[in-house]
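During the second year of the project, the team shifted from modelling isolated chains to modelling whole assemblies. The rationale, set out in the original proposal, was that interfaces cannot be judged from single-chain predictions alone. As a representative example for this report, we include one of the complexes processed in the last quarter. Its constituent sequences, exactly as entered into the pipeline, are reproduced here:
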Amino acid sequence: MRAILFSLALCLMTTSTQACAASPTRLVIHGGAGTIDRARLSAEREAEYTAALAIALAAGHAVLERGGSSVDAVIAAIIVMEDSPLFNAGRGAVFNHDGRNEHDASIMDGATRSAGAVAAVGVIRNPIRAAEAVMRHSAHVMLGGAGAEAFAREQGLEIVDPAWFRTEERWRQLQKAIAAQRIVRDHDAQPESAYRDDDKRGTVGAVALDRHGNLAAGTSTGGLTNKRYGRIGDSPVIGAGTWADNRSVAVSATGTGEMFIRSAASHTVAELVRLAGKTPADAADATRPGGGARGGEGGRGGPGPRGN
Ligand code: ASP
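Output from the structure prediction step:
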């Protein structure tokens, strides 16, 4: 569990037939990535994260176990994390420079390669639901801002007062970031800097394989603390933050979004598996979103609990 919360940056899974024969469904979730200073994380805090992740995992597994689709499993898991104040998604999302929560989310169905995304939305309780609605009920792939919110209303999705997303801790993090004049990935740990964030809690994501052999991936985030000018990260960008293709893998990324966009990270990983025959781990290493001259940070995590 700890590996998922603290280390996972690219969640990868394969459609290997041997793996499927042993256990026909798979679900991997993440709650962000970053370097954790163990001394700064209390046992109580760690237990809270572990419990929240376990609930999310159980919600997704329940869908898969009753024969539901990988898309529905991914959504079920992500909704739990969006509703938890512990993660940088939905309730508990980081604040932008103007003191508002702006959420990005996306979902992709590996069977059809259909996809949906919303960007910079502020009143939709579960942005991943809005991404799903875009995928299923619109002619588009990505909707942004007020238009996306109008669409969500039309679709009957739950609309909330922006105060729903606010946590005092995130507000304090914004004040610190403003004071330090920093735009901060919420799990940044930069000891060399005067700025230090107290927590490493991130973007959320899930990838799943259902018993019909279909893959799906989804990602949801509040983005970066103190982001400005309508900044949108990789999480709603299909091919950067999220990708799923039954011919290869399902990927949900977390890290410095600009790097993932520039390297089309999730799509690149999948295509290295599909076309170059790399293992998912090697493909993720080869993609190295943070390895370029422009810096940034991203990583790759391993399997989660339940042997996934
Ligand atoms: N990738 C996200 C973004 O850039 C941030 C994160 O994963 O923590 O918006």
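The chain has ten helices and nine strands. The longest strand covers residues 114-121.
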